[in-house]
Each structure stands twice: as structure tokens, then as C-alpha cells.
């Protein structure tokens, strides 16, 4: 999405200039965390509990492979997943 403006150059270098979607994931965990936090803050609100399909719809704006992005958000503890995997919400 062209109107998405990253907060700094660290995040911007991992996004495609043409559409603002993820071009590649950072190898460095600190940079990956910054990118994922930036996405999480824009894609989700703290009072929401979403199904996997709803999460995927939100993440399509940011990545071609939404399953990988969703997994990274959970692994980096930015999204919490219910024990049965049916719902997601922002961590914290």
C-alpha cells in the first residue's frame, strides 16, 4: 500500500517501495522486531479478538505470505493465540 509510511529507515529498507509490502524479513532479530511491531501497531487494535481468517485479511496488506508473517508475530509475542488456535489478539 503506497500510503503506508514507515517510522524510520530500518523498517523502510525491508519494504518494497512500490507498494509498502514486505520485500524480505530482516535476519537480525532487533530489526525483525521493529518491522513486526510496526505492522502489529497498524494492523490490530488492543480490544480485538480475531479469527485466523480475519488476521490473514489484515496481514494481506503487508505480505504475500500471511502465514509466515502471522507466525512471526506470534513467535515475537506481538500477537497472542488462544490455546485452541481459534482467536488472536494483540499481546499485552
What can be said about this structure in brief?
With about 90 residues, the chain is mostly helical. About 40% of the residues lie in helices and about 5% in strands.
Topology record:
Blueprint: H1 9-12, H2 29-43, H3 52-59, H4 66-75, E1 79-81, E2 88-90
Antiparallel strand pairs: 1-2
Helix pairs in contact: 3-4
Distance between the termini: 27 Å
Biggest sheet: strands, sense, closure?
A: 2 strands, antiparallel
Q: Which outline best applies?
A: globular
**Overall average residue pLDDT:** 91
Radius of gyration, Cα only, in angstroms?
Answer: 13 Å
Category from helices, strands and their pairing = mainly alpha
Strand order of the largest sheet: 1-2
Low-confidence stretches: none
Amino acid at each position: 500500500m503506497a500510503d503506508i509510511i514507515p517510522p524510520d529507515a530500518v523498517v523502510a529498507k525491508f519494504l518494497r517501495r512500490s507498494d509498502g509490502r514486505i520485500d524480505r524479513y530482516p535476519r537480525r532479530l532487533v530489526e525483525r522486531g521493529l518491522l513486526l511491531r510496526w505492522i502489529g501497531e497498524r494492523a490490530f487494535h488492543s480490544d480485538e479478538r480475531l479469527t485466523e481468517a480475519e488476521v490473514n485479511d489484515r496481514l494481506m496488506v503487508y505480505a504475500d505470505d500471511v502465514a509466515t508473517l502471522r507466525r512471526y508475530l506470534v513467535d515475537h509475542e506481538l500477537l497472542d493465540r488462544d490455546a485452541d488456535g481459534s482467536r488472536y489478539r494483540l499481546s499485552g
